[in-house]
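Inputs:
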Amino acid sequence: MTGGALIKSITKFADGPEGMRLAVRQLIDLGVDQIKLSMTGEEVTGTQRAEDTYFSDEEVAAAVTEAHRRGKRVCAHARSAESVKMCLRNKVDIIYHASFTDAEGMDMLEANKDWVFVAPGINWLIATLYEAEAFGFPQEAAEAVGYKKELEVATDGLREMHRRGIKLLPGGDYGFAWTPHGTYARDLEHFVERLGFTPMEAILSATKLGGEIMLRPDELGQVQPGYLADLLLVDGDPLDDITILQDHDKLHAIMKDGRFHKEDSGIAPRSGLDAPAGPVTDATRQVVEARP
Amino acid sequence: MPLLICRTCPRYDVDSGSFGAALDGALVGADVRVGHVPCLGGCPNAGNVAVDGPGKPRVRFSRIGVDDAEDLLDAARRYDASPSGAPDDWEVPAGLAARVTAVSPKR
């Protein structure tokens, strides 16, 4: 709605319940699979705060009612305490971030844990706070706009959500310069190190819950008869070291839908140069492949 | 996984990936565990390497070159031996101290 867009150029604006209803209808007419509500601010903007809530209950209710009536799900960028509760009151299917969930919201999440998914996008908070200086956003600036506070509050809240059995999934907000694509497995490390998951719980959040959030729990996300063959062959034990999944050299084979995306190769795991991002000289390849 | 090497540095150049390949050549026979990750998020300062370990902060070094190989191995050993991994608790090799560009705690 007016005044609430984080990035205006990729936002459709709508005000009031009827405006929301019309916007949802127009987007569904375009063929979207899901409706996303941009309900709160984002500290990096400097002006639209994460704890500000821009939607009214009536607007969320109208958007969700219309979307669900048409068989579409709704997700929301929802950092503030109020936005989380608003999502739950109005049956938003997927809540992103939920950074400032308060006690009431925590109870509401637990009461609705059979259907709601929460995906915190935790790496965004960590990388923006600690690792973005090279891109012009030093840690001092990130702390000044509130990211340290948000990370601390979010961490405590997510640990409590995990304890209460609320469905938490990794991923989200990769693709910014300091949260590069291809590094998604780092979320698994965050889930273990920061949020108190066991390595197996973190893997299940990405796989089994991944199948559930994609509405295909009977064919995605598990290694079981009848499931699609989405498989990784890993050199090492991620239950012993979850970070091993970040090292692409340790992913010997990658299979999707029963077809190899990356086939196991005797050379690849030793050299790590089977799929270099850039030119590799023959001399370098010989030296690296000679490594024991 | 004490030593992480970026596979895409220098990201913005035509020889993206050459940094990791060259550094690998300098680490032949190393007694330190080395991992290759797609990116360490320090792209404008190409040549990124990090030390990382369970319960310890990730410490990233940028503008690293092949000549820094010995210092990197030394850093990895000192980091591994440090109970906390925080840069204040272990001595970062002098040649790398000014090139620490991120310290990301786990809690």
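Chain B is about 25% helix and 20% strand. Flag for discussion at group meeting.
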